[in-house]
Amino acid sequence: MVIRQLADKLVAHARIASQGLRWGHLKRSYDCLTGLSHGASGIGHALLQVACYFGMKGYVIWQCRHGSMR
């Protein structure tokens, strides 16, 4: 279940911020990108696809609570 392991890794590396979830916080990277191809919306979409495929209701609830679906 490599896909599930990678999804869990994305969730583990998420940072909760006042605006929602964030990924990517290297010194020389853009912080909090929001686009579908390189940002939080793309990550959120991928996690929702994984959740639907594997029937992981917890991912959907977690994203709703922490802002990826605002």
UniProtKB/TrEMBL annotation:
Gene3D superfamilies: 1.50.10.10. GO terms for biological process: carbohydrate metabolic process. SUPFAM superfamilies: LanC-like (SSF158745). This is Uncharacterized protein. It comes from Chitinophaga pinensis.
